[in-house]
Amino acid sequence: MSAISATPTPLAGLWQIDRHAHVDSRGSFARLFCDDVLRSVGWDRPIRQINHSVTEQRGIVRGLHFQFPPHGETKLVTCLSGAIFDVAVDLRCGSPTYLHWHGIRLDENNRRSLLIPRGFAHGFQALSDHAVMIYLHDAAYDPNGEGGISPLDPRIAIAWPLAVTALSARDAALSPVGPDFSGLPA
Question: Which CATH number characterizes residue 95's domain?
Fold first, then answer.
């Protein structure tokens, strides 16, 4: 039977989730969510929202998005088809890795997800045309709690693997981290 495992990243609280599939002549079966494993690494509330996105062209960047308290959310991000470079940025006030980022490749073949806790910004770049993603959230989206940081912020300096070919108008208008931003409560 399939199982999932969690591996810590260099940013405390951010976890790489690997799905170990059962493969046979018919295809494969893999568990996407396992409360027992994910609860042990910080998923402590029920799934409240599931989102699905499709990015049609490689090079497009979406993000960096987050929710201000008390609307913070934990996300489990998975690429179902195609490939992406998924990034989380630590915005936790007082964290030793404040404004550090971690990125990993998520694709339909590596059966990997990223568990992003509250206090992090999230974004990704499509590495393939037609990248399909699913996000599980432990809180419902609240437009009044929405925040964002420019994905091209030189202070954060994310090393996007491809040239950035497009941003939405909303994401292009996001500002870099300003001197008045001191982080999100941990």
Answer: 2.60.120.10
Tokens of 155: 């202070």
Residues with a known catalytic role: 65, 135
**Mean pLDDT within 35-46:** 92
What is the per-residue pLDDT for 182?
Answer: 86
Structural domain count, the chain = 1
pLDDT in tens, 57-92: 999 999 999 999 999 999 999 999 999 999 999 999
Contact present, 66 and 148 (Cβ < 8 Å): yes
